[in-house]
Amino acid sequence: LTADQQALLDQFTASLPTLVAQTPEADRAKHTAFCTSACLQRYLRAHKWQLDRAQTGLTKTLQWRSEYRPDEITPAEIESEAVRGKMYPNGYDLFGRSVIYMRQRLNHTSDAKMQMRYLVFTLERAVQMLPDGLTDGPACPESLSLLIDCEGWSMSTGVPLSTARETLTILGSHYPERLGHAFVVNAPWLFWTFFKIVSPFVDPVTRRKINFVDLKTQHDLPLLQFNDMEKVIRPSSSTEADPTPTSPSEIWTNLRNHFSDDYLEASESGRFNFQYNHEHTW
């Protein structure tokens, strides 16, 4: 941290008792434990090191955690959402991020409230898989990778717009700086058309973390050299919008710049022969 950033972090830390005091008394101990130095730095980074905005964002998260109680969602509560293996954390990418696999085609429920609680449950589990605290190395152990398999995606099977909006709100507001990369695999042309429409409205920093993968051609894409890995580890934080790509071929990503074949599931062209077995997993 720079001297100015450290000063802001110190002020943020000093304000914690006041922020936590705005939550129910029964929750204050766990909220204090939640607000580690790493947590405060994530909120400061997410809010461009503007202390007042970071304090407001954290206050809203603490209030949300008191009301939604994400840490108290039990496996039994959301098991009906999990039986087909549509979403689960499994392993790590090359940079130490825990990976969440998502397959919307396996969705078999329609209760939006329970679907959202299952998402939050999965996020909480994936965060628990990460190392505690910050390191000085390049592994970004605080963030997650989402591997979104869109095979079978259509307007009828895709996530409703309201659910997508709520998902982005929860990720951005209550899990800031947790998204390392999102990989969209097997996206049909209809999805690409939809993405081009919404892309200009997505936060530029988040947009740079979204990668498209064509499993049929990715082996033709070059592997990054060591000196280029910083682009993969830490996407640009510029708030200026990138030009909207005109075709997916402009932004194809080689998964092997992010995953080891040995730890990437075979369904995504890796060598890890993992099959979700609910009875065993749960």
Regions with little confidence, pLDDT below 50 for 5+ residues:
133-139, 225-230
SS strand fraction: 5-15%
What does the radius of gyration come to?
A: 19 Å
How many helices? The count is: 11
- CATH fold label of the largest domain: Phosphatidylinositol Transfer Protein Sec14p
Shape field: globular
CATH class of the largest domain: Alpha Beta
Beta strand count: 5
- What is the average of the pLDDT values? 84
CATH H-level homologous superfamily name of the largest domain: CRAL-TRIO lipid binding domain
The helix content, as a percent range, equals: 40-55%
The termini sit apart by 41 Å
Protein name: CRAL-TRIO domain-containing protein
Pfam families: CRAL_TRIO, CRAL_TRIO_N
GO molecular function: phosphatidylinositol transfer activity
Domain CRAL-TRIO: 75-236
